[in-house]
Write a structure and sequence with these properties.
This protein has 103 residues and is mostly helical. The chain is built from 4 helices and no strands. It has helices spanning 8-32, 36-47, 57-67, 71-89. α1 packs across α2 and α1 packs across α4 (71-89). The longest helix is centred in the first third of the chain and has 25 residues, at 8-32. It is globular. It starts with 7 loop residues before the first helix and ends in a 14-residue tail after the last helix.
Amino acid sequence: MAINILSKANKKLSQLKDGIRVLAWEQYKIDNRVKGEEGYKIFEQEWLTHDIHKMDQAKFDKFIADLGYTVDDLLGERTRYYQKRNKSQGIGNEPANPDDIPY
C-alpha cells in the first residue's frame, strides 16, 4: 500500500465520478432487482471495469454533458446519497460531510 495525495483537480474529478457511481448504483438496483451488500458486490465488478475510470477531465465533462448532467447535479446527488446513508446508519447528529468519511 502507498499513500496517494490527490491534486485538487484530481480530487474533484474523483468526487464527480463517485456521483456517477451513485447514480449508476441506484439505477442498477432497479434494473437488476438487487440490493444490499451482495447486490453491490455484483455491481462493483462491472463498475470497476467501466471506461469512466480511464477518463480525464475533458472526456468526463463531455460524458456527463452527453448524459445531461452538470457538475452541480453530480455533487448534489453524491451529497444526498451520503446524507441519506449516514442518517440511516445513525452516524452523527447531522449527516457527515462525505469527504470526511473513511471508506
